[in-house]
Design brief:
The protein is an alpha+beta fold. It has one domain: CBS-domain, CATH 3.10.580. It contains 7 helices and 5 strands, in the order H-E-H-E-E-H-H-H-E-E-H-H. The strands form 2 sheets. The protein has a 3-stranded mixed beta sheet with strand order 1-2-3. It has a two-stranded antiparallel sheet with strand order 4-5. Helix 5 crosses helix 7 and helix 6 crosses helix 7. The longest helix is centred in the C-terminal third of the chain and has 16 residues. The two termini are about 20 Å apart. About 25% of the residues are buried.
Length: about 150
């Protein structure tokens, strides 16, 4: 088998096409974020203020911090329930490292940044789609993922 260099996040984007980050303003209510996620058929939105990422809000946040604990989506500010610790990667990051961080931190969505600017949000679903569409992507990423665990 020929050696293939590791697949990087930028290769994933070339494989899948551009993934525009979807954001809500920090003054939004949870219902605004849910509507935005539904409109775009996605599972997360970035919460921003003056182009600065303050947090990320996901379906998981809603499930754990929403109506079931007594918060009204229409009256709860997004900043009260968003996840403030946002893990990011850069376009040159190796996809296997992204998967490892997602597994370690139990996260499904990760912003990709360059020079402080969010370029896109990568999801585990997008990575799985790339695996399904490109066997070389799967083989190479699994090789790299295995190498991370041997060191």
């Amino acid at each position: 088998m020929d050696y293939r260099p590791p697949f990087r996040v930028k290769d994933l984007i070339e494989e899948l096409g551009p993934i525009t980050p979807v954001v809500v303003d920090s003054r939004a209510m949870v219902l605004d974020a849910l509507d935005t996620m539904a409109d775009h058929d996605i599972g997360s939105v970035l919460v921003v203020e003056d182009k600065q990422v303050l947090g990320i809000y996901t379906e998981r946040d809603y499930a754990r911090k929403g109506e079931r604990v007594g918060r009204s989506a229409a009256r709860t500010p997004i900043t009260e329930v968003m996840t403030r610790e946002v893990h990011t990667k850069i376009p040159d990051s190796i996809v296997a490292e992204v998967l490892q961080l997602m597994a370690e931190k139990d996260i499904r969505h990760m912003p990709v940044v360059d020079g402080g600017e969010v370029l896109f949000v990568i999801s585990n679903k997008a990575i799985l789609r790339a695996f399904a569409e490109n066997k070389a992507f799967w083989d190479t990423t699994m090789r790299d993922f295995g190498a991370l665990h041997r060191t």
